[in-house]
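re: ur question from yesterday

yeah so i grabbed the chain u mentioned. its 357 aa long if i counted rite. heres the sequnce exactly as i have it in my notes:
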Amino acid sequence: MNVRVAHLHANRNWGGGENQLLALARRLHARGIFTVLVTPADGALYPLARRAGLRTLAFPDGSAARRQLALDLEEFSLTHLNAHDSDSTSLGLVLRRKLGIPLVLTRRIASPLRRNPLSRWKYSPRRLDGVIAVSETVRAVLVRGGYPAARIQVVGDGIDVAALARIPAEPEFRAPYGGDFVVGGLGSLTPKKNWMLMVRAAEILARESFPVRWLLAGDGPDRAELEAAIRRAGLADRFHLLGFRADAARLLRQLDALCFPSRMEGASVAVREAMALGVPVVAADAPGVVESLAGHGWTSGADDPQALADHVRQALTDVALRQARVEAARRHAQAQYDYETTVAGTLAAYAAIEGRR
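ran it thru and got these structure tokens back, copy pasting raw so excuse formatting
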């Protein structure tokens, strides 16, 4: 099948979804597959895509710009449109009608489909030709929302297994923490990420004088509340908020364990990267995270700090159990989560949609 695809992306911010889209587009382009990315010119993804040598067009602002974009894309003889968020799905439905080609949505979030008239229009099987779900968890949410199961392909978010394997351990990173264990979290500081559970678990282990330091890389609206909670718990010298880190994978490589207390995830790339790096994962039992771990980590309730603390302690001190789970997690990540698996699955999803037409 001669695939020629336009990826539509409306979000101006940078996050895991944008990283996944850039990686996918670069790998499709490297395979010689015609790929164009439509994203806001003032957004975080646009300059990175241009720098990577990808064909990049500005996401339209207004009806005149949408008409011009349709004319520009028509010249490319596209075979597929792939939307990557809600607003780009709305644009994709307009372009689908004008260009006469199928539209697929890549869905990364595990929140239910809304039932208002706009959402019912947007996610109608009569208009949306197929969905790529990043996990079985996301697929199940879509099916419960009424989208036909037969038209959903599960294609997991990918990680660069080879690049992760090249990240070295850095003894100097650990020097400021003496002989203490170092446990970290990665992600935006937002309510759904549930970082307060990590603070409460840290408080429990501090009362036991358990030798662990805590690092949290990310930024967001919950930062001030977390800072206050850390001070109240007397953890100011043991729990450090690092802010946004562009070198998150390098930081992850240095940890003794990843703590991931999120309440809701479609699938977590940070968890999958930790698995590939041989870093044990202690997490809350959000379905997408449980699915990613595949039994090779520690999970507990999202409101149970004592269980989280117990699991952190076990992951750090039970050497035999830790080693067994880490090795099984590494093998699973290498076999299931490499970017090339994501690329192959995406192309298979395009082919399935074309076959149904």
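noticed a couple things. Residues 4-158+338-356 form a domain with the Rossmann fold fold (CATH 3.40.50.2000). also The longest strand covers residues 34-39.
anyway ttyl
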